[in-house]
Write a structure and sequence with these properties.
two-stranded parallel sheet; seven-stranded parallel sheet; alpha/beta; 8 helices
Length: 289
């Protein structure tokens, strides 16, 4: 029996290589599409400008066109990964058009499942010019998305595009609103700043291990009937050694709508929906890394 095929975009990036490794370890045939070659050769990489719809169609035709074996899904993580590293319009155009092109080509080649990287930044707190508090805690997917930056806006547009393509073709699209992604080599630097909890206030001390992101991507490809859905994805704890309730009392005093007990170092970015729909659970936590 031949391997299932999955196409990953952005596999040469920070989280991307862990997604490539995970799918290869799970016995998938993995194709990486990226504008640059990876530092580590994990699988086949095709250098592709994903802002060019023609190139995206051309590449997908090699694996999903005609009578070729079906692609199980696409995991789209190629993007400018944060606000203000590029001019606003460059960030917006890149992140929106690469996602649109992937969805358009996937629909045209009858690829049934796509996973896209959205962000906690879409809630607006992270890159706001003036900090504002969440309306309630923990934050779930129903919390208003209030960005003022082009990065957060691009993520909202991509989630709407996902809904559009689901209506058009029935394609399943899972948009992961990711907490701050940490890779193994980054943990020590974060823990070294535990005595400065204000550093990570704007992300509500959330984080997610890249390896847990990868396992969630696999589940999103293998689970049926999800439609177009946005799911928070964060570790169960926070990137601080202080109790969550104490951090909230000190840094978020105006938040009075507390919807779940803030016991221990529990997260403020709820992944309950991802756990329920995917059967996913975070495996890695910062204290054990």
């Amino acid at each position: 029996m031949s391997k299932q095929r999955v196409i990953v975009t952005g596999g040469s990036g920070l989280a991307g290589k862990w997604i490539l490794k995970h799918f290869v370890e799970q016995n998938y045939e993995v194709i990486n599409l990226d504008i640059k070659a990876p530092d580590e050769q994990i699988c086949r990489t095709i250098i592709t400008d994903l802002t060019d719809l023609g190139q995206v169609h051309n590449v997908l035709s090699q694996f999903a066109g005609g009578h070729r074996e079906k692609v199980a899904g696409i995991v789209h993580f190629a993007a400018i990964p944060q606000a203000y590293t590029h001019p606003n319009e460059v960030c917006y155009r890149n992140n929106v058009m690469t996602t649109y092109n992937i969805l358009e080509a996937a629909a045209n080649y009858n690829i049934d499942k796509v996973v896209i990287a959205s962000s906690e930044s879409s809630y607006g707190i992270c890159f706001a010019s003036e900090f504002f508090e969440p309306q309630y805690l923990p934050m779930d997917e129903q919390h208003p998305q209030l960005p003022e930056d082009s990065y957060g806006l691009s993520k909202i547009v991509n989630e709407v595009a996902a809904e559009t393509f689901h209506r058009r073709s029935g394609m399943q699209v899972v948009s992961f609103r990711l907490g701050n992604i940490l890779v193994p080599e980054r943990y020590e630097a974060v823990k070294a700043r535990f005595d400065h909890p204000e550093d990570r206030l704007r992300i509500l001390w959330s984080y997610i291990d890249a390896r847990d992101v990868a396992s969630a991507c696999q589940l999103a490809i293998e689970t049926d009937g999800l439609g177009a859905v946005a799911l928070n994805l964060a570790a169960d704890d926070i990137s601080s050694d202080q109790p969550t309730a104490e951090l909230v009392k000190r840094y978020l005093p105006g938040v009075t709508d507390i919807r779940e007990p803030l016991e221990g170092r529990t997260t403020l970015l709820s992944s309950a929906k991802a756990k329920r729909l995917l059967g996913w659970k975070a495996k890695y936590n910062i204290m054990e890394q």
